[in-house]
Specification:
homodimer; Arc Repressor Mutant, subunit A; globular; DNA-binding
DNA sequence: TGGCTGACTATGGTTTCGGCAAGTTAGACT
DNA sequence: AGTCTAACTTGCCGAAACCATAGTCAGCCA
């Protein structure tokens, strides 16, 4: 196991208490297996209830519960659609808040893929075919290393 | 087999079952409140047991349990250190696998900050002072929109 | 030697998550 | 009218997460 030390431990430990940030709600929403897998499948293109249940491999009861929570949280919406000879059904589609979750979901999936033996799917950019990764950058476009992060209180 | 994700429902739902990826281990590790908050504080610069306990606001019992799991999973390591007049203690520092979690943790924190009323801390780049954000980019450096993601089976 | 403190470890109780099983409801088909 | 099915809903159970409290252990100091 390799360890990259920052070399600034003593000073860094004096950083004051970070602001409480609303991570509890985030974790309550997608901090469970089913919700995250459901979101992954929605990102991968699934939208119908039975399709999501089959892909995630969870019981329909749990899937229904998590989907309801995701809809209530404003991450997914139910869009009515009708296929010929079928009655009206509802497709689960991402809201803008749901779209904003893409980096988080992708980052979690990538870490799991990179740091365990199982391997995983390869996600690439349609325009150029290059593999996709999640990066930490500042607004000026620089790739930011962990040591260069500054945590500030809100203005 | 590769599938392009487009915005169209009918096509998107035909995407076959995604590869199983090792998300269970990931969620078992950081899919709980305490582990994620501990990691956040380590990223923010904390390293000592009592400091982490105080910052996260969790009982020492739970913190010890989660820290042990994080060490066992290879995300953190215990580095011995000694302050004058004190006995040897251990600091919790990130391994390379732990460093790789930065995008995921930051993305979760950012989503929570952006999509709830509470607000949150502002993370900036030390070199230029610009706010930091998590981006999805391909290896060629393009910012990748969700509709331009291609999910392929492993080669 | 005895007290103090930091870093845990152990126990018990409540809430949440997921699996299993059964029931419900609305519309299409016969 | 009766059957079938997709999409849920409800209830029970075991496991895991969290909290609170109490106990342990190792070194430093008086």
């Amino acid at each position: 196991m390799t360890v990259r030390l920052t070399g600034r431990l003593a000073q860094r430990d004096d950083v004051p208490l970070g602001d409480r940030c609303p991570i509890d709600r985030t974790l309550q929403l997608i901090g469970n297996r089913t919700a995250l897998l459901l979101l992954r499948e929605v990102f991968y293109g699934a939208s119908r209830f039975d399709s999501l249940v089959k892909r995630v491999g969870v019981t329909d009861a749990v899937a229904a519960q998590r989907l309801r929570e995701l809809v209530e949280a404003g991450v997914l919406t139910k869009e009515p659609y009708r296929e010929p000879g079928q009655r009206t059904r509802h497709a689960y589609v991402l809201t803008t808040a749901g779209h904003d979750l893409l980096p988080a979901v992708l980052a979690l999936l990538q870490w799991g893929t990179a740091h365990s033996s199982g391997g995983g799917p390869i996600v690439t950019h349609a325009d150029c075919g290059e593999p996709v990764q999640v990066e930490v950058r500042c607004a000026a476009g620089h790739v930011v290393d962990e040591d260069d992060l500054v945590v500030g209180s809100r203005r």
